[in-house]
Design goal:
This protein has about 220 residues and is α/β, with parallel strands linked by helices. It is about 20% helix and about 30% strand. The protein contains 4 helices and 13 strands. The protein has helices spanning about 15-25, 40-50, 105-110, 135-150; strands at about 1-5, 30, 55-60, 70-75, 80-85, 90-95, 95-105, 120-125, 155-160, 175-180, 185-190, 195-200, 215-220. It has a 7-stranded mixed sheet with strand order 5-4-3-2-1-12-13, with helices on one face. Strand 1, helix 1 (about 15-25) and strand 2 (about 30) form a beta-alpha-beta unit. Helix 1 runs parallel beside helix 2. The longest helix is centred in the middle third of the chain and has 18 residues, at about 135-150. The protein starts with a strand and ends with a strand.
């Protein structure tokens, strides 16, 4: 599986998303931050179907509380997951992988929790803006490592390239990827280039976890 992790700047439309869909036509997933799509969900569905690439991101319904939602759009342009922030985790099975989401501070406020979802392969953590301190940066990466180990899954996250938390003078854009054994294979700060993550799983049989013998290879390359 080829996953493109982008760190776009905030915008009213989805021009950066469309540009990266064009740039990486062989991608399986484009992974973007919390709140990027906003009012452009229909456009994102159209683009996913046009390019045959899944989109994982977030959007806001400003008239509702909580306003933020995670969203997964499949290659056919269908919304297969839309989860309100601070609700229990949900999963979808796409391209042979069990995928779930986290939104921004869900990571530290409630963690990844839902006793009914069973095994998960990838947790995709869409973050709104950069970290407001080095301490927060370290804390969030450490929490993601705990989730990866506890659930024996890949955890990856990305934030916007711009914006700040409550007008903080400090904003550290973040992208990370952690293996199921808790190894941090990517943890970038203030480096907003797009990255490609290649996942190669030799055995995709959904066997009981205790009897699985999967060879998972993760390769990460800068793309921008």
């Amino acid at each position: 599986m080829k996953i493109i992790i982008g760190q776009p700047r905030m915008e009213q439309h989805v021009l950066q998303l469309e540009a990266e869909l064009k740039q990486y036509p062989d991608a399986d997933i484009i992974f973007y931050p919390e709140g990027y799509l906003n009012q452009n969900v229909e456009d994102a569905c159209r683009l996913a179907a046009e390019y045959g690439i899944m989109i994982v991101s977030g959007h806001r319904r400003l008239q509702e509380r909580p306003k933020d939602r995670s969203i997964i759009i499949n290659k056919a342009g269908e919304i297969v997951l839309e989860k309100v922030k601070y609700t229990p985790a949900e999963t979808v099975v796409e391209q042979g992988w069990v995928i779930s989401t986290l939104l921004c501070d869900e990571l530290v406020l409630q963690g990844f929790c839902n006793e009914n979802i069973g095994n998960v392969d990838i947790v995709m953590h869409s973050i709104g803006v950069g970290m407001f301190s080095e301490e927060q940066y370290s804390e969030w990466v450490e929490e993601a490592c705990k989730i990866a180990l506890q659930h024996q899954c890949i955890v990856m996250g990305t934030s916007h390239a711009d914006g700040s938390y409550r007008d903080s003078e400090i904003s550290i854009p973040i992208t990370y990827c952690i293996t199921p054994d808790g190894e941090v294979v990517l943890a970038s700060r203030s480096d907003t280039c797009t990255r490609t993550i290649l996942l190669d799983r030799e055995n995709t049989d959904r066997l009981p976890q205790e009897s699985q013998e999967k060879q998972l290879k993760i390769s990460i390359v800068p793309s921008g």
